[in-house]
Amino acid sequence: MPQTERLNADAAGLARAAELLRAGGLVAFPTETVYGLGADATDGRAVARIFEAKGRPQFNPLIVHVDSLAAAQRIALFPQEATNLAQAFWPGALTLVLPLRPDAEIAPLVTAGLPTIALRLPDHALARDLLARTGRPVAAPSANPSGRISPTTADHVAAGLSGRIDAILDGGRCPVGLESTIVGFDPVPTLLRPGGLPAEVIEACLGMPLALPGTDTGIVAPGALASHYAPAAALRLDAAKARPGEVLIGFGDIAGDLSLSPSGDLVEAAATLFQRLHEADATGRPIAVAPIPDHGLGRAINDRLRRAAAPR
Ligand code: TXA
Ligand code: MG
Fold first, then answer.
1. pTM of the prediction?
2. For 77-83, which contacts have Cβ atoms below 8 Å and span 24 or more sequence positions?
3. 60-85: pLDDT as tens digits
4. Which of 2, 105, 154, 208 is 20 to 30 A distant from 306 in Cα terms?
5. How far is ligand 2, taken at its centre, from the CA of residue 145, in Å?
């Protein structure tokens, strides 16, 4: 990784930030809530690098940032309540979790293999200008190392991620300073994470109270989502070769029936993980997975594989 570029909030800085994103780079950028660590959401390898840079030991689903409601509607299906909330509060500190359109060009790692996607239209001139120039949906978690607090200045980002990302677009301090409020709709409007937009304001718009996860609905809290996607078939880990009837997902020297990365590259393996699990699951056969080294992105891959293999 080259030195992290510090980009100014001007036309040259924005052009460079968009160029880096379009080339699969990682760019931290300001939003009204906190700084996000952005990558092209259609590029699985770029998204995998987000987890690598943050040192996240788990693949949590990420929020995808768009520059218009129309762009969001090309990615997800909007129930009526979601359209109402988007019209009332976008751009703003509200993230909507919605059914992903099957034909949307989103890397499966973004949603951690889930059939839903979190979308947000940020209320920050620089963020929106960057999204428009990039011309692609941008996946962005908060721009902090895993387990640390969310950054609200470019210096916070640099302190945590300098040398691990391509650039930081410096837009000064984030005015809200708190992450966005997350609302899901499965089947009723549900508060998945309190945040910068007060729940009461959302409830007033909806004309009804928001449900809470795990109480009156089947929705799990965001932190528990990691266990959500699991293949239908049994999964066996650390498999050097397939047993009769199994489909083997290979890695490196273990070729398998399909491979996470023939060259043994963990970034590629992370980018292809959910795709390969879905493909293996579609065979209807029990699944075996070759050993994955337990360092760097391999830790998150193994975490996810262990969850998928857990008895249920
Ligand atoms: O204000 C914000 O939301 C900032 C800025 C950068 O936009 N972003 C942010 O992202 O806080 P992050 O990755 O730190 O938090 C994303 C949250 C996680 O708790 C994740 O579980 C949840 O969104 N999430 C993402 N996709 C989801 C999905 N399909 N279903 C339920 N929760 C989801
Ligand atoms: Mg965060």
1. 0.87
2. 77/101, 79/185, 81/185, 81/189, 81/206, 82/185
3. 999 999 999 999 999 999 999 999 99
4. 105
5. 9
